[in-house]
Amino acid sequence: MDPVVLALVAEWWWIAPAGAGAGALGVIGARRGRPAGRRLELDAAMHDVRQATDAVTRSRADLKVARAELLRTQAEQSAGRVGLGAVLESKRRVQAAERAVKVAAADLKARRASVQAARATLPASRAPLEAMPLARLRDEHDRLTARWIAYETDAAKAIDYPAMSDASSPALQEFLREQRLALELRPASLDTRMAPADFAAYRDAVRRATHAFDAAEHDARRGAGERAPSASTTTDWSALAQELLETAQGAIARSAEAWQRDRRRRPGI
Fold it and tell me: Which has the closest alpha carbon to 217: 119, 151, 152?
């Protein structure tokens, strides 16, 4: 195993087992905003709907422009000022704009469904902090981190699935990039004040990291990426792992400070 990865695992070893359950100490510093409460997931879903609605409006406007440009190009062709290639290119742009409208409309539909799901799972007004949306999302992220560290610390898994520690695996490198972003966006504690847009960004980062990890696992179980790593890919791996290590080190310090502040505010904990 790369020495930098070993150091990184050593930093996170105490976090991963706790992350499998609720109430684990946070890793990364907070992004402050509105209070993180029972409506945070719902507010983030509504934020997503507004963003998706804007995307639909923009895509429809782009389609109108593309169609107008096609009409102009066709008129130019009739007058002999442009050739058939210009008309075909305008048609291609109209088709691309039509596809963009369909994609934006489908995304808006999915975002609206997410609002309904968030409303259905809204915690009770007196639910404990651990039942709030931010706590659930952090717990989901902790479970993902624990899954990854298991491949770095479990000798049997390392032997069975060597690709999960293979510096030349593009799928694993993609996971590490997404995991780094998720860690940067992760709040330090369960009661961090957070804006809906920041919650949505963290939620999406965790989902991308999860999908990337699932893809890396799938590749590993198919036996992909078993070739010996080259010097260049090992260097790339080391650089990325070093960045993750530095992020984790800073995060642990910030999380400890947040925990100490909580203790001073609530001496009984």
Answer: 151
Q: Do the beta carbons of residue 182 and residue 199 sit within 8 Å?
A: no
User: For the chain, give me the number of helices (H) and strands (E)?
Assistant: 9, 0
- Rounded (5°) CA angle 228-174-220: 50
Tokens of 83: 């050739």
Written as one letter, the residue type at 154 is D
What would the pLDDT profile of 174-183 be if each residue is shown by its tens digit? 999 999 999 9
pLDDT for res 41:
96
Mean pLDDT, to the nearest integer, of 55-73?
A: 98
Question: Cα–Cα distance between 67 and 73 in angstroms, integer?
Answer: 10
Strands (E), 26-183: none
CA distance 220 to 147: 14
Helix spans in 186-230 (H): 196-221
> What is the residue whose two structure tokens read 């520690």?
165
Predicted TM-score of the model (pTM): 0.68
**Both tokens assigned to 164:** 């999960």
